[in-house]
Every structure is written in structure tokens, then in C-alpha cells.
């Protein structure tokens, strides 16, 4: 179930209330007249079956509530109610298969911002990948994969392409185009410092072979990226976030970026180029599969597009 909160202008409240009560997937409806302060209006609350949420939000937007009031959704972890059980049974489809498009746009928009936190996580992930390369440690490499935050912008890019949201595509592309080079430069700087202080030697690094798969580009590189992108988008749209950990460990985006930086520092330009190619293949594969999954999902209502860039707030 999802909890819905609506701030409605007084003149539209009866229409909003009628729309909520008419949907069989809506229950626990509460009306607080005059409770809204900013924006002013009436406050309505309800619990909505996930499979009905997309249609409910679309109907509220059709009434203009999103422009002069507000609509908010949040996850209900536990609901002990016969009325809630009846609403979930009456709503068409299955909760796991339902896509709440406004929720997806908001979530991917939030995770696609280029900010200090994103750069810090990506830099740390690439540094971990660099440490994995010089120590020939697969365990450290897995840690780097999990820490990497790159799936957020990749998912946002797929959503933006499918929904033709240029603002979302632009934001995600900037995050990736700036984030990876910056993280690779940080990793290269760390590698130069490590080499200068004797933390590792070039011949020792080149002697390791446990992580050679990172820069070995082949058809399976694309296959894994496609499968991971599909699984990741299914996880995001069905609210099964646990599967995302497997996605992070599957793709070699961060490892390839880290290996490319180490290869450049060691003067192994062939390894550097192949690692960069591996990075590109993984990025393209993940976005392609994620976009395909979204395109195949059934959209019952158009996603609201205000024509304005996504808010930074």
C-alpha cells in the first residue's frame, strides 16, 4: 500500500473526494477541511493499493491539483486492515507489476543529480577499484561495485529517453559525463601518490591476473550489461530494491573506470583503452536494457510534464 496526501483548493475538494471514493483501490479516506496552510486548502489522506496508484495520481493531476495544491505518496510498510485488504484485491493487476510513473520520475530525478555526494561516492568506488587492481583482490573489487552510485543516473537516462523528458536526460548525462572522468582523475592521482611512496610496483601490478576480465571486452560484456540493466529497472519499478545489490555486482562500470586510471598511470595504454571500452559497453548496455523494460511496461496514464527542469529541492 501507498499513503496518499493531497492538498486541494477548496473549490476542487468535492471533485477530488469523489475521484478517490470512486476508485476501488483507495481506502482509509480522510478529509480535513481548511487544514492546508501553504498552499492553502483542504487536506485529504488515503491509502492506495500500489497497482491503483498510477491511475489515482493521473486523475488528480487531471483535476489540476498538482498545479494549485500538492500530491504526495509514501510507502506503507505495514497495514492491518480488512478495508486495505479489500482495496488491494479490488485493484486491477498485481502490486509487484505496477509502475507508479510519477514516483519513478521523482526517484530517478533525485538520484541523477551531479552533486558533491555523488562525486564522493563515485570517487571512493573508483579508488577502491584501483586498490583492487594493484592488490589483485576480487573481494575489494566487489566492494567497489557495491559502493558505486552510477545506476541512479543510468536509470534516469533510460526513464528520460522513454518519457522524452529532455531535462532528465540532460541531468543524468551531465552526472555521468562529469562524474566518471572526475573519479578517474582522483584515482589516477591516488595511484601516482602510491607509486611515488612505494606502496606498489609496476611489475607487481602487471603480474596479477585475477582481474584481467575487467578489460577483456567481448559479447558477454554486453550480455551481462543488458541483463543487469533489465534487472535493475525491474527492481526500481516493482519496489524490490534488494535486487539492486546484485545489479551493482554484475556490471563492471566502476572496475573498468578504476582499471583505466591505473593503466594510464602505469603507461599501459592498451589496457587503459580496453578498460574504457568496457566502461562504454556497460553504460550503453545498461541504459538500453533499462529503457526497453520501461517501453514494454503498460502505461495507463501520461506522466505529468510541467515543462520546467526537475527541482533541486
Automatic annotation (TrEMBL):
The keyword Metal-binding does not apply. It comes from the Bacteria. The chain crosses the membrane at residues 116-135, 141-163, 172-193, 213-234, 241-264, 276-296. The keyword Transmembrane applies. Keywords: Membrane, Transmembrane, Transmembrane helix. It holds the Pfam family DUF389. PANTHER family: AT15442P-RELATED. This is Membrane protein.
Amino acid at each position: 500500500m501507498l499513503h496518499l496526501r493531497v492538498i486541494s483548493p477548496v473549490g476542487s475538494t468535492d471533485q477530488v473526494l469523489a475521484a478517490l471514493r470512486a476508485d476501488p483501490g483507495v481506502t482509509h479516506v480522510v478529509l480535513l477541511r481548511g487544514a492546508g496552510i501553504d498552499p492553502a486548502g483542504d487536506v485529504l489522506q488515503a491509502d492506495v493499493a500500489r497497482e491503483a496508484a498510477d491511475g489515482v495520481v493521473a486523475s488528480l493531476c487531471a483535476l489540476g491539483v498538482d498545479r494549485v495544491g500538492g500530491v504526495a505518496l509514501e510507502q506503507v510498510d505495514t497495514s492491518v486492515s480488512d478495508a486495505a485488504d479489500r482495496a488491494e484485491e479490488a485493484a486491477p493487476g498485481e502490486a509487484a507489476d505496477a509502475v507508479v510513473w510519477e514516483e519513478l520520475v521523482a526517484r530517478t530525478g533525485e538520484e541523477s543529480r551531479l552533486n558533491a555526494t555523488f562525486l564522493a561516492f563515485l570517487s571512493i568506488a573508483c579508488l577502491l577499484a584501483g586498490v583492487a587492481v594493484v592488490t589483485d583482490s576480487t573481494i575489494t573489487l566487489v566492494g567497489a561495485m557495491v559502493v558505486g552510485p552510477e545506476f541512479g543516473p543510468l536509470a534516469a537516462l533510460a526513464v528520460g529517453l522513454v518519457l522524452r523528458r529532455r531535462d532528465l536526460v540532460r541531468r543524468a548525462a551531465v552526472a555521468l559525463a562529469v562524474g566518471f572522468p572526475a573519479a578517474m582523475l582522483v584515482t589516477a592521482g591516488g595511484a601516482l601518490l602510491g607509486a611515488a611512496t612505494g606502496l606498489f610496483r609496476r611489475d607487481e601490478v602487471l603480474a596479477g591476473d585475477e582481474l584481467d576480465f575487467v578489460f577483456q571486452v567481448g559479447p558477454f560484456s554486453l550480455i551481462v550489461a543488458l541483463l543487469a540493466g533489465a534487472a535493475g529497472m525491474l527492481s526500481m519499478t516493482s519496489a524490490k530494491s534488494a535486487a539492486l545489490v546484485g545489479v551493482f555486482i554484475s556490471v563492471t562500470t566502476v572496475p573498468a573506470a578504476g582499471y583505466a586510471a591505473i593503466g594510464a598511470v602505469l603507461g599501459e595504454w592498451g589496457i587503459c583503452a580496453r578498460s574504457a571500452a568496457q566502461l562504454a559497453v556497460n553504460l550503453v548496455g545498461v541504459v538500453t536494457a533499462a529503457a526497453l523494460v520501461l517501453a514494454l511496461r503498460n502505461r495507463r496514464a501520461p506522466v505529468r510534464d510541467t515543462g520546467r527542469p526537475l527541482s533541486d529541492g
